[in-house]
Each structure stands twice: as structure tokens, then as C-alpha cells.
């Protein structure tokens, strides 16, 4: 490993001089005593780290303080806009070449290979995150000079964090009731992040920030490939501001993705069909939800298409945990005076103020699956002016029968599920009938302004998940074996990050051509069309309730070496640089 090789330079005659002689042009002159001091700090940090996990991402996480220390040291001797990771990589390549010449008589054995260089870049990218090193950038990842000047003046005054409350519009990715999400870049590593600013009101909703902060801490400690990774949480009481630094998912949220797709298809006079990735998205959402339920012991309570984001590879991840609740059971009390969640996705027992558990999230999952596979309602019914008086005493909803000629149909491309109309802003009781509207959309789609689901298996699954009775909704194990999802071969809840990454690699690209016949999806795009294999298949809606999940720890472990032995020969240095 390169860091180990650097520490070895302390014990190699002329090692520090060799390091300085390999200095790239972008790094200013450094005194030998400064280098000695920095290398000793690295040695102390390296020797104090307990190497127990073999997974590289966890390993890099443990080394994050060391990588940040390297970046800080080089930053002190470069220009403010220098590409620090690139300079360090060049420096190590020069050192590697010099070591190869000095100790192998010109042999290429001493040269860092492409794999080593890539690991070094990943190591530097994993540097310990500091919020003060993040700067807002525009869509082209350029730092906005006006903000930089403002932040510099605030930093000189000792109030750098006040700049976080003045994010330029060009950096904003989205905003909602509780906060704004903006695009940020680490000025040292060049890594891009999404930062969510949650401004907490003085009264009423102050618990939202605290709750999301608590959830974020758990997710930081136990990450999952199907949950947006959280790197850092900061609270600034003087600004009443929470900042959550997350991985950036460049393809936006699932709702907007489907919406854009429907717009394109509509312009071409085509109808929505689920894309090849659709069934994988369902599986990825299921795995993320399972992680929150079984490993973090919490309910999601706001699962919807808006809160599922797509990363650069098109993989779905859960995000926005402001309404999560610790524990698997909840009373029917509404903490904020309203039912937790988004109206069309909320389970009927939550609306009725009854005690509820994880089955409420499975209801939301059923609604989400319907949206993914159908694209949402094709239109909305609105009462015409002539019928307003006649409809005052009726429970109107956007799925009324076509026989009501007084209602005019407004075409809609927005991917929304059916939802009862409320007589007034606090008429939440009307939402308890949403499961009936969903059933109508599934069983008789056209009159209810809906698109038919692609298969009987899909219809059975959505009806089972959106059942009025919580105990009738299938759980994780039943969903794994159901006819619609079994071909995905979902990893176990105990799967390691590497195993999840390998499974995600099987997801089809957007342009993949699929066979016309598939036993799971009928050829409409599960991405894993394959011959029938004997398997236990769950049948719906006869399931007897949410299945119990068995979880365990399944991670291989290996011991990674600590600081180098001072008595080691220079060959050690050569091997470490090539490792």
C-alpha cells in the first residue's frame, strides 16, 4: 500500500531526499524537516488503526483521516485551485519510478500499475469529509466565484458556516417543505456530494431535524448499497440548521425519471411501458427497505417515487428519512398533527389512527410498484363548473366512474397513484378509502384512468401489498419467492457490501434488448428473463401476513498489516508501491 511505502521512507537511507526529488512541478519546495514531521504523523496514525475488515470500502473508511492528512499537507504547498489528488498520484508515480531505478537497476517492477493507481485515487477520494471544505458548484461542477468571495470573508470573521445559509440558486438540486438539496464539491478531493440543508422552525416541527439527524447517524454507521450513503451530519444551533452530506445521485428521483419518460413517449404518441430496469428498481427498493427494517430497526413511513433516487449507474436508492421512526411498532398518534407520509401512499390503518407496524411500509411499497410498472394515472377527473353544486355533498375522487358525465377529464403525465379528494385540508378520513381506488385501478384500469399492469403476477402482488388488512400483506421472505420477483435472486439481508455490488452489476442497461417471453414479466422488462427453475413461489393474496426475517452476519474477515517494520529492507518499499 502506498501509505505504508511512504512511512518506509523514514527508514530508508536517503528516502526523504528521494521523495522530494520526485516532487511534481505543481508542488512548491518543501523542507526536509517538514516531510519528516508529516511522515511520522502518518506512521503514528497507521500503527494505531485496527485492521479487521476485508471489505475495501470499510478499509478506506478507516484510512480516511490519513488520506485527509496527506491532502492537507500537499494543499499547504500548492495553489488554491490545484488538483490535489492528481498531484499526489503523479508524485507517487515519480517515487515509484525512482525506486525502481535505484533498487531494481531500471527494472519496471518498481512502477505502480494501473490497479494500484486506481486504488490510490479511491483512497484519496475517501478522505475524511469536512463540511468547511465543501463548495457549491453549478451543473458543470464549476465553483461560483461570487459565493467563494462571500465565504472567504465569512471565514476570516470566524463564521464560515453562515455561508451555508446562502447557497446560490445555480447549485440547488431541489427543495421541499423542510429543506434544500444542493450540489457540492470537496475543494481538496474534487469529489461531488449532495448536501441537504434542513432549516428547523423555531416551533412546531423542530423534531424533524433531530429525527433525521438520528437516522442519519445510524445510516452512516451501517451503510447499504440500496440506501443513499450519508457521510457527514452537522448541526448549527445559531442558524437552526442541519446539514446532511450525502452521495450525489445524478439521475434524479424516480418520479421525475418516469415523468420525463412519459413526456417523451407522449410526444412520440406512444404509451408508457416499464423500462428494462423497472423490476430491478423494485428489488433495490425492497432491499433498502429491508435494511432499514431489520438492521436499523426503523419504519420508513414516507416511501414514494419522490424519495427513490437513481445514481449514475441507474441503481435505485432510498433517501429522505425525516419521517422515519425508530422501532417496528407505532401508536396511531400523529406527532405533527397530520398522518406521516404522502396521502396516496399512506396505509389505511395509519389514516384511521390505529396502531401500526412494518406492514404500513409494505402498503406504500405496493403503491410504489404500481407507479413504477404503470407510470401512474393517465388523467385526473375534475368537476365542471356546472356540476359544482351537485358534487358538494359527494365524495369525489380522481377515479370516479366514467358514467359521471359532469366530470371533465384532464390529461396528466405526472406519475401519481389514485388518491381520494379531501373535502377540506383536514379531511384525512377520506384517504382511508385509497386502497379501494387502487384495487379499481388494478382490476379495471381503463375506466379508472389507469394503465393495466403488465402481468397477472404484478396484479396479484400489488393487490396483496395494498390490502386493507395489514396481516394480509406479504413480508420480505414472501416477496423474495413471489412469481414477479423470484427471478431477480435478491441477496439475503445479511449480504455484504461486496455481494450487493456484485448483484447490482447484473442490472440491465437501459438499451438492453430482452426476449419476448419471460416467465416473470411476460417479456416486458424484468431484465433477468431466464428458463423456469423449480422454486417455491408465493401465492397472493392468500399470504398469511408479514414474514419474519432471519438476519445474520456473513462477512469474511482478514487481517491487514499495520505499520512497516523499521528493519525491513528497501525491497519492502518496492513491493508496497506495487501492491
From TrEMBL:
Residues 384-410, 539-562 are annotated as: Disordered. SMART domains: S_TKc. Keywords: ATP-binding, Nucleotide-binding. GO terms for molecular function: ATP binding; protein serine/threonine kinase activity. Gene3D superfamilies: Phosphorylase Kinase, domain 1, Transferase(Phosphotransferase) domain 1. It comes from the Eukaryota. InterPro entries: Kinase-like_dom_sf, Prot_kinase_dom, Protein_kinase_ATP_BS, Ser/Thr_Kinases-Pseudokinases. ATP binds at residue 196. The keyword Transferase does not apply. This is Protein kinase domain-containing protein.
Amino acid at each position: 500500500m502506498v501509505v505504508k511505502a511512504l512511512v518506509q521512507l523514514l527508514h530508508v537511507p536517503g528516502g526523504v531526499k528521494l521523495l522530494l526529488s520526485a516532487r511534481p512541478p505543481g508542488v512548491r519546495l518543501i523542507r526536509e524537516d517538514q516531510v519528516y514531521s508529516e511522515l511520522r504523523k502518518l506512521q503514528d496514525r497507521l500503527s494505531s488503526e485496527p485492521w479487521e475488515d476485508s471489505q475495501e470500502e470499510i478499509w478506506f473508511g478507516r484510512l480516511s483521516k490519513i488520506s485527509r492528512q496527506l491532502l492537507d499537507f500537499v494543499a499547504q504547498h500548492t495553489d488554491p485551485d490545484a488538483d490535489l489528488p492528481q498531484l499526489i498520484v503523479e508524485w507517487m508515480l515519480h517515487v515509484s519510478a525512482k525506486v525502481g531505478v535505484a533498487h531494481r537497476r531500471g527494472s519496471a517492477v518498481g512502477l505502480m500499475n494501473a490497479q494500484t493507481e486506481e486504488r490510490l485515487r479511491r483512497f484519496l477520494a475517501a478522505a475524511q469529509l469536512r463540511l468547511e471544505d465543501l463548495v457549491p458548484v453549478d451543473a458543470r461542477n464549476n465553483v461560483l466565484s461570487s459565493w467563494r468571495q462571500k465565504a472567504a470573508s465569512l471565514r476570516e470573521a470566524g463564521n464560515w458556516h453562515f455561508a451555508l445559509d446562502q447557497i446560490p440558486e445555480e447549485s440547488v438540486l431541489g427543495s421541499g417543505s423542510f429543506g434544500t438539496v444542493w450540489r457540492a464539491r470537496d475543494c481538496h478531493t474534487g469529489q461531488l456530494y449532495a448536501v441537504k440543508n434542513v432549516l428547523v422552525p423555531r416551533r412546531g416541527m423542530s423534531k424533524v431535524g433531530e429525527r433525521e439527524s438520528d437516522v442519519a447517524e445510524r445510516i452512516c454507521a451501517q451503510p447499504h448499497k440500496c440506501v443513499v450513503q450519508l457521510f457527514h451530519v452537522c448541526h448549527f444551533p445559531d442558524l437552526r440548521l442541519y446539514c446532511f452530506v450525502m452521495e450525489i445521485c445524478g439521475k434524479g428521483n424516480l418520479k421525475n425519471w418516469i415523468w420525463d419518460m412519459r413526456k417523451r413517449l407522449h410526444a412520440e404518441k406512444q404509451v408508457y411501458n416499464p423500462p428494462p430496469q423497472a423490476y430491478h428498481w423494485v428489488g433495490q427498493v425492497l432491499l433498502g427497505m429491508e435494511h432499514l427494517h431489520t438492521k436499523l430497526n426503523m419504519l420508513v413511513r414516507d416511501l414514494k417515487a419522490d424519495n427513490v433516487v437513481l445514481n449514475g449507474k441507474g441503481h435505485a436508492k432510498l433517501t429522505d428519512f425525516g419521517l422515519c421512526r425508530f422501532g417496528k411498532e407505532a401508536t396511531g398518534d400523529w406527532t405533527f398533527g397530520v398522518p406521516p407520509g404522502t396521502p396516496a401512499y399512506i396505509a389505511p390503518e395509519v389514516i384511521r389512527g390505529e396502531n401500526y407496524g412494518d406492514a404500513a411500509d409494505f402498503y406504500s411499497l405496493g403503491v410504489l410498484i404500481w407507479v413504477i410498472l404503470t407510470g401512474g394515472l393517465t388523467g385526473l377527473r375534475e368537476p365542471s363548473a356546472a356540476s359544482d353544486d351537485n358534487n358538494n355533498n359527494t365524495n369525489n375522487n380522481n377515479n370516479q366512474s366514467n358514467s359521471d358525465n359532469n366530470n371533465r377529464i384532464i390529461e396528466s403525465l405526472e406519475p401519481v397513484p389514485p388518491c381520494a379528494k379531501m373535502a377540506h385540508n383536514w379531511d384525512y378520513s377520506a384517504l382511508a378509502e385509497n386502497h379501494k381506488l387502487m384495487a379499481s385501478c388494478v382490476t379495471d384500469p381503463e375506466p379508472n384512468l389507469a394503465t393495466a399492469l403488465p402481468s397477472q403476477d404484478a396484479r396479484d402482488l400489488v393487490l396483496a401489498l395494498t390490502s386493507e388488512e395489514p396481516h394480509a400483506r406479504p413480508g420480505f421472505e414472501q416477496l423474495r419467492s413471489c412469481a414477479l420477483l423470484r427471478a431477480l435472486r435478491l441477496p439475503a439481508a445479511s449480504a455484504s457490501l461486496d455481494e450487493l455490488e456484485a448483484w447490482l452489476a447484473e442490472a440491465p442497461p437501459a438499451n438492453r434488448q430482452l426476449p419476448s417471453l419471460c416467465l416473470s414479466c411476460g417479456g416486458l422488462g424484468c431484465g433477468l428473463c431466464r428458463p423456469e427453475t423449480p422454486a417455491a413461489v408465493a401465492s397472493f393474496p392468500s399470504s398469511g401476513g408479514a414474514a419474519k426475517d432471519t438476519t445474520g452476519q456473513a462477512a469474511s474477515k482478514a487481517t491487514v498489516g499495520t505499520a512497516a517494520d523499521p528493519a525491513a529492507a528497501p525491497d519492502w518499499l518496492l513491493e508496497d508501491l506495487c501492491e
